[in-house]
Amino acid sequence: MTDLAGGDAELIAASLEEPERFAALFDRHAPAIHQYVARRLGRDAADDITAETFLTAFRIRARFDPARAGVRPWLYGIAAKQIGQHRREEVKALKLLARTSHDPVADSWTDSADDRLAAEAAARPLAGALARLSAGDRHVLLLFAWADLSYQEIAEALDTPVGTVRSRLNRARRKLRTATGAASGPLTEARTHESDPA
Questions:
Q1: Low-confidence ranges of the chain (pLDDT < 70)
Q2: Nearest residue to 2 via CA among 129, 162, 120, 148
């Protein structure tokens, strides 16, 4: 996915002279960043981390390189660093989900009782497996599955080579499949973006 019409990179450049222009970037991307962080750490932490992500982005906007893959990976990279500082809370939340199979974020997605029961049954082993992944593997997997970033965008977000992204994603999928016994699912299936070579 590329930056939205109106040019996010241009907004950042314009905000250097007119800081209020940065608000449009927040309006465009804060909901997605918030949802991503909420999936990882819960809604309470998501408010603070989303705010901190955009505050940090605003502070360092002069260093944004328009030659990057885009503004989205840059923002997710900042969010990933903020999440990294809260790693213990993430692992604790995943372990709680593994024990109770209750995911308050997913509640709003699930419409029927049957779907909710099936989701809760699958959530326990998946949450436990996610908690056991290394932070690097978990970042790559969740940026791919929940933020819908391409391999290149994940590499940009985490400032790591694309080959490392591929390796971590492959390893994380393998561990999840082994731990959950699942043949496929949104976190374990091989999905590629048009910009990602096979």
A1: 1-6, 69, 87-90, 93, 100-124, 182-198
A2: 148
